[in-house]
């Protein structure tokens, strides 16, 4: 712990035990040479000798990992694509809308190439990119928020025009508000005869979302995931919103991101989809995420193709972890091969220690309750 014996302090600061004991006595502390004193007391004694006592920084791998991180200089930053999460009530058309966007934005040559479903994908709109997080991404969104990680730049709130605001619509609004993410409303199912967009706009005002045509600041776009009506407008609005956010990242540093989903594949081992938030991840990089570490053996993009690297805002599947990380875990690439393994070991030890402490506490409680 954080204590030192008077004898050890004597050796450390080169003062005699009697001098130190005298100081301690004046502080109201009856110490002997074998007494343990805490850091604050030792510091008081030392300051009397005009010696500054500093806590030795613990030399953990985790600390080294944190020390490797840095703020990017302005001149190294480049624009990056927006990351968009689709949210909304069950059956309001989130998946249908994403499917429509994906299909309509895939060039003919690629159409057959979409085999992989990696929970996140990037589409091209007039030469610019938008990354969408799919419904599993919604869970990751919650997990990330719980850990204070923020991977989403913009939330698209899907509200069915024939059903209006429902419990999960409200939940989604609260999520977005808590995360301080701007919301764009997609009023979906406009092709339905009983579609009533005005009712949706009316209902949304109760939750602080006032559409632009109603004098507010919320962008609301009527769409249909079936006919495709309004989808181009929606994409345009997303890009407009992204421009206002001035999203940037430094592609010329080690990759950093968040795990969107992960699973164990029988043939290929642990597979994790990561959304790169900064830097570029390369095949061969040493990586750490939660308790998993390893070396990137292969990267697979959202089209199921092997790629050699992935940059900011790109989702990519990683092969090479020694364990399955959890959705919401932060992924970091490290320059030092040993560091990632050390950090993972340390984290495992920490969990083991706290588990053992809990077990010991529980067995003590059992012991006492059974007396
Ligand atoms: P969950 O993932 O279960 O929360 O639902 P979801 O929001 O992803 O909705 P999904 O895309 O599965 O759509 C639900 C139903 O609504 C399906 O039967 C869709 O075919 C239908 N649907 C979705 N969008 C539209 C639309 O624009 N027009 C019409 N007519 N039907 C739609
Ligand atoms: Mg769905």
Could you characterize the architecture of this molecule?
It is a single chain. The chain has 371 residues and is α+β, with helices and mostly antiparallel strands. Helices cover 35% and strands 26% of the residues. It is built from ten helices and 19 strands. Helix 8 (197-205) links the parallel strand 8 and strand 9 (219-222). Helix 4 (61-68) crosses helix 10 (337-370). 37% of the residues are buried. Residues 107-116 have low confidence and may be disordered. Bound molecules: guanosine-5'-triphosphate and magnesium ion (MG). Guanosine-5'-triphosphate is lined by residues 88, 90-96, 135, 188-189, 191-192, 224-226.
Short structural summary:
This protein has 371 residues and is α+β, with helices and mostly antiparallel strands.
Q: Could you give the topology of this structure?
A:
Elements: E1 3-5, H1 6-13, H2 17-26, E2 36-38, H3 39-48, H4 61-68, E3 78-79, E4 83-88, H5 94-104, E5 120-125, E6 128-133, H6 135-146, E7 154-160, H7 167-178, E8 183-188, H8 197-205, E9 219-222, H9 231-245, E10 248-249, E11 256-265, E12 269-278, E13 281-282, E14 286-289, E15 292-300, E16 306-307, E17 309-310, E18 315-321, E19 330-334, H10 337-370
Parallel strand pairs: 4-6, 4-7, 7-8, 8-9
Antiparallel strand pairs: 1-2, 3-10, 5-6, 11-12, 11-19, 12-18, 13-17, 14-15, 14-19, 15-16, 15-18
Helix pairs in contact: 4-10
Bound molecules: guanosine-5'-triphosphate and magnesium ion (MG).
Organism: Aristaeella hokkaidonensis
Protein name: Translation initiation factor IF-2
């Amino acid at each position: 712990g954080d204590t030192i014996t008077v004898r050890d302090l004597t050796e450390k600061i080169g003062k005699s035990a009697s001098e130190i004991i005298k100081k301690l006595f004046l502080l109201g502390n009856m110490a002997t040479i074998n007494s343990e004193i805490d850091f604050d007391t030792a510091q008081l004694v030392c300051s009397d000798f005009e010696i500054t006592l500093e806590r030795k920084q613990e030399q953990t791998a985790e600390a080294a990992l944190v020390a490797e991180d840095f703020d990017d200089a302005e001149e190294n930053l480049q624009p990056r694509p927006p990351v968009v999460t689709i949210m909304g009530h069950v059956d309001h058309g989130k998946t249908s809308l994403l499917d429509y966007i994906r299909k309509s934005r895939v060039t003919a040559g690629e159409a057959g190439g979409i085999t992989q479903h990696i929970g996140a994908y990037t589409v091209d709109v007039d030469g610019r990119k938008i990354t969408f997080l799919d419904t599993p991404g919604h869970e990751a969104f919650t997990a990330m928020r719980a850990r204070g990680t923020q991977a989403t730049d913009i939330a698209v709130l899907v509200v069915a025009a024939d059903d209006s605001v429902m419990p999960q619509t409200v939940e989604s609004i609260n999520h977005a508000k808590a995360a301080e993410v701007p919301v764009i409303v997609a009023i979906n199912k406009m092709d339905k005869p009983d579609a009533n967009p005005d009712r949706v706009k009316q209902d949304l005002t109760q939750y602080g979302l006032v559409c632009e045509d109603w004098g507010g600041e919320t962008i609301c776009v009527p769409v249909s995931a079936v006919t495709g009506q309004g989808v181009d407008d929606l994409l345009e609005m997303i890009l407009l919103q992204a421009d206002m956010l001035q999203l940037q990242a430094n592609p010329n540093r080690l990759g950093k991101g968040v795990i969107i989903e992960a699973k164990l594949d029988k043939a290929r081992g642990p597979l994790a989809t990561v959304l790169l938030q900064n830097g570029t991840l390369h095949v061969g990089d040493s990586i750490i995420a939660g308790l998993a570490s390893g070396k990137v053996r292969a990267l697979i993009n959202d089209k199921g193709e092997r790629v050699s690297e992935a940059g900011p805002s790109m989702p990519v599947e990683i092969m090479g972890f020694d364990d399955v990380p959890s959705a919401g875990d932060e992924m970091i690439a490290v320059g030092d091969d040993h560091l990632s393994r050390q950090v993972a070991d340390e984290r495992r030890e920490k969990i083991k220690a706290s588990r053992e402490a809990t077990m010991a506490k529980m067995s003590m409680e059992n012991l006492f309750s059974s007396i």
